[in-house]
Amino acid sequence: MTIPATALCIILGMMPLLILPALPSVGWLVAATAAALIALRGPLPLRYVGATLLAGCWGVFIAHQSLEPANDNTWRNQQVEAVILATDGATTHTVNIIKREGRWLPGAIPVTLYGSYLPEPACPGQRWAMSVALRPVHGQLNEGGFDNQRHALSQGRTLTGRMLHASVLDASCSLRGGYIASVSSALARYEWRDVILALGFGERLNVSDEVKTLMRDTGTAHLMAISGLHIALAGGIGWGGARLLQRGLPARRIGHRFPLIAGLVLSALYTWLAGGNPPALRTFIALTICGAISLSGRQWSGWQRWLCCIGGILLIDPLTALSQSLWLSALAVAALLFWYQWVPFRPGACCRPVRILYGMLHLQAGITLLLIPLQIAIFHGISLTSLLANLIAVPGITFVSVPLILGGMVLHLLPLPAAEQGIWWLADSSLELLFSALGSLPTGWLDVDERWQWLAFAPWCAIVLWRLKLAAALPGVTASLLCAALFPLFRPAEQGRWTVHMLDVGHGLAMVIERNGRAILYDTGNSWAGGDSGKQTIIPWLHWHHLQPEGIILSHEHLDHRGGLDSILTTWPMLPVRSPLGWAGHLPCERGQAWRWQELSFTVHWPLPGQRRTGNNGSCVVTVDDGQHSMLLTGDIEADAELAMLKHHWQFMRADIIQVPHHGSRTSSTAALLGQVDGSAALASVARYNAWRLPSEKVIERYLRRGYRWSDTAHAGQISVNFSAHGWQIARYREHILPRWYHQWFGVSAVSG
């Protein structure tokens, strides 16, 4: 087997980590490993199968190992010793736990701690004694939303936690930490200090949301971190410096090995300065593999080198297969190889500056067109200004800002304060000009829904059809491919079907009633400093599913139910809002009201007419009915109001499904309500780690005794109920919509707080 073929087997062997619903057992792993070793001793085709299977076993073994800390009694408060890796200077700290309950651990456990200030300023490398409450990583799961659990596992961080108490044991910073602190102090008076630290050291915790949003909207977010481009640039500087040194040497002393080794050494140093963040580390591994291939004298093609780099990265860290940034980088390189092979750059007879400009346009056009499928799959949108923005930002950051920052980092080590401040000023000014230019571009971000996923591959197909001249030779095949890609855009809605989605918004409530491409919202989730559920979850979810909202029902005024209202109304200003609050512009929501929407009947049961109740007991309670099946939406109504509602309106309360009142609190869900509704399923919107430890176990038992099937968003993620003439079905994200091993409920299943 050749090395590139082995690398391909490794890549194929790791792919099941992306789609396995559950990790195979240890017994299966042992049997599969034995079978793979036997296959490796057989004929060549069987060796390929054996190598692929062995790589898959290695990936599954590492996945099992990564989950051990998350399943190791994480509900108890623990005394640990930890080394600071990174801190935002406020309430977010990344640490390595090296001792637990006084015992040294065989390997450090990385943990991100949230919500508490350290008692004194900290820097990377310090060792602290801490009392911590550790918990397994857990993320909100919605179709088309950010997958926090997958991201955390791809980074090797399966634990988060809360710091209860801390005291410093060793206040000395690491060499890197002290250097970063010193450079940060020298940059204190510069406006773009946080961006300089991000580009120089990969420290992005303090970069403002405005800068991140601007770079996302212009398609230049890949330049913000220390990425492959910057590590490769450092390696190129090392290679170029070595070549300059060789100019002064006799010919017999000049060889190709010294520049390669010098480039790798400098790229390794820059990777260390970046804190070994995954993109930088992956780039260094790839550069090392490419360097080893060059030193060996093998004349391999770009595709063979690409296979070896991806295979090597996955062999060293199999869980990198879960990383979206890996596949974005890998596809970017593959797109360049494909682009220059199938659409070669032929500038013709023109002057050098024009050739350079044409070359940049040619390169950026290829990247922009060929990365559309992955951009839609990951970011659910594309930047219409990315071509122009990258023509400005890529050379500006790569050839101006980053070299200036690297120069400032070197000068900071020398007793030349004037020169250092001069170069920092130049770096700051270059970033000011760059972001001013990006900010002057029109808003270019375009949200794209899931129907466009297959059509996004059109540039790849068009290039192949054009170069092979298949469009004219096989017009039927070309037309069939185009129709297949366009079909989702014109697929008719299924008649008679409607769906209620309970979105996973943590502690809060946000429900979407969907029919015929239209939607009604019942509550809008929570809000917090710097964001809300509307902006983070509901609006992207509606865009991704190509749903047009036509109204909002607001149950009551508590923030966890109306937190996303302003963001949603900013996006769709003309949406009518119905609530019991009596606020300006709101339609009333009180008993006796009924209306039709998309052939569904809405009936309000509470509050009583003329009453302006506030708080939970003022919740607008609504039944949605199609004539055969119904669902009761209850907001946060509590026991007193439940009994009063039944007294006035008991004969209309029956429903197949109930939204559990008040997130499953023991103050709600009385036996009288459950008996009168007489439903079959109960859905609760709760957060796993909520301060109130909801839902109450007694409430869950009460529903189960009454014959209800219980589901909650903490365990299930997004919950969707599909109604049709044939009945209704519940689909849970973790079990039905996208069951994956990395979506499981890690840790102790009985603990929600």
Task: Walk me through this protein's architecture.
This is ComEC family protein. Residues 507-688 form the Metallo-beta-lactamase domain. This protein is α/β, with parallel strands linked by helices. It has 5 domains: 3-67, no CATH class; 70-173, OB fold (Dihydrolipoamide Acetyltransferase, E2P), CATH 2.40.50; 194-447, no CATH class; 450-490, no CATH class; 498-743, Metallo-beta-lactamase, Chain A, CATH 3.60.15.10. The strands form 5 sheets. Strands 15-14-13-10-9-8-23-24 form an 8-stranded mixed sheet.
- Which sequence of strands runs across the widest sheet? 15-14-13-10-9-8-23-24
Q: Calculate the terminal CA-CA distance, rounded to whole Å.
A: 52 Å
The total strand number stands at: 24
Summarize model confidence as the mean pLDDT: 89
**Cα shape:** globular
Can you tell me the number of structural domains? 5
Summarize the biggest pleated sheet. 8 strands, mixed
Structural class: alpha/beta
Helix amount: 40-55%
Number of helical elements: 27
Low-confidence parts, pLDDT < 50 over ≥5 residues? Answer: none
Write down the Rg. Answer: 29 Å
Strand content: 15-25%
Oligomer: single chain
Could you name the key traits of this structure?
5 domains; 8-stranded mixed beta sheet; 753 residues; OB fold (Dihydrolipoamide Acetyltransferase, E2P); 18% strand; alpha/beta; globular; 7-stranded mixed beta sheet
